[in-house]
Amino acid sequence: MRILAGDRLFFFIVLILVVGGAAMFLSAALGLLARQNADLGHLAITQLVLGLIPGLIALVIIRFTPQKLFMRGILPFYIFAVLATILVFIPHVGVHTNGATRWLQVGPVTVQPAEFLKIAVVLMFASYLAKMRSKLSDMRYGLLGFGVIVGIPAALLVMQPNTSTLLVLGATTAAMYFIAGAPWRDFAVLLVVALVGLGIIIAARPYVLQRIQTFVHPADNSLTSGYQIQQSLIAVGSGGLLGRGFGQSVQKFNYLPAAVDDAIFAVYAEEFGFVGAVFLVLLFLAFAARGLMIAAEASNAFGTFAATGLTLIITISAFLNIGAMLSIFPLTGLPLPFISHGGTALLAALASIGVILNIAANRAKKRTR
């Protein structure tokens, strides 16, 4: 397959995650059969029709798009993603669920623009850093550029609210900024802004403080806010060394909340045990290592920053999700990339893979000249 010309190893790592993720999603979704008002068919169709199929199409198209043409579309895509995110606040267009306004109603399905916003910010910031990296010591080009490109989307995410996505995007763009050679002075400023912002969010959003308190004292609210993490730990512990076997999870039936969403790792660990869980962690580590290697060998600065950012977006999300299910981190609500339910998230992740493979292919072409 020509698509392997980008990077065979990276492609096969993603292939394992996508195929294995689809199987794991179907297994977790079977647990919904025991729950009232669960529409398993709709769930599977949205994952397939909104996520997997268009995601694979996007991956192939982006992989073979000439990089010069691809880069011309970054600014329009950034503007589109910002405007689409603003649309969620318009009544009867945006969908308000569980205290958050993050989705757009598109026919029978909902779309989460923040998933595309993450990609757009990373690509836009990568393009900016590639052009301005020699001027980053000047705050007019460094911090001001960071504040405009990242700050506007960050404000929209705070308004939704979508704190978990904001944390992932903030950590990723800060890492990109560091790699570009920004002065330490700027990181001190960003750290102060981040801490003050986090303090304001905790004060203004009681659920954030509640999640932190539940993380510190999970047993105090085992039947309320701590219920999910308690059931997750029971599921992980029940898996033992080798697991109950594929499809044999007990916790996914009426016990574990969000079994197909952010808690799907707990179902996976119950079915495949400690060995399976370690394998998945190593797989994401391999994904990160190979993605960063592609970034290091990119043919230009834009490729380095873009591949780094997109790799980190997926990797950080994965380990925050896994860590939350193991009570290493507070619950974030982040999906497990390639595996959790969420058609928009799957589409965005596969499109990101297309970008990284495109960068890898251009690296390979440069080597052969």
3D structure, described in words:
The structure is a single chain. With 369 residues, the chain is mostly helical. The chain has one domain (2-364). Helix content is 67%, strand content 4%. It has helices at 8-29, 40-63, 67-72, 74-87, 114-132, 143-159, 163-179, 184-204, 206-216, 227-238, 264-296, 301-325, 343-368, and strands at residues 94-97, 100-106, 109-111. It has a 3-stranded antiparallel sheet with strand order 1-2-3, covered by helices on one side. It is globular and about 55 Å long. The model has no long low-confidence stretch (mean pLDDT 87).
> In terms of structural class, how would the helical and strand content be classed?
mainly alpha
Oligomer designation: single chain
How many helices? 13
What is the percent of helical residues? 55-70%
Large-scale geometry = globular
Strand order of the largest sheet: 1-2-3
| Total beta-strand segments | 3
Q: Number of domains in the coordinates?
A: 1
Q: What is the mean pLDDT?
A: 87
Alpha carbon gyration radius: 20 Å
Q: Cα distance, first to last residue?
A: 22 Å
**What is the element string, with H for helices and E for strands?**
HHHHEEEHHHHHHHHH
Biggest sheet descriptor: 3 strands, antiparallel
Residue fraction in strands: under 5%
Low-confidence stretches: none
Which labels suit this protein?
369 residues, mainly alpha, single chain, 67% helix, 3 strands, three-stranded antiparallel sheet
Short description:
The chain has 369 residues and is mainly alpha-helical. It has helices at 8-29, 40-63, 67-72, 74-87, 114-132, 143-159, 163-179, 184-204, 206-216, 227-238, 264-296, 301-325, 343-368, and strands at 94-97, 100-106, 109-111. Helix 2 packs parallel to helix 13 and helix 5 (114-132) packs antiparallel against helix 12.
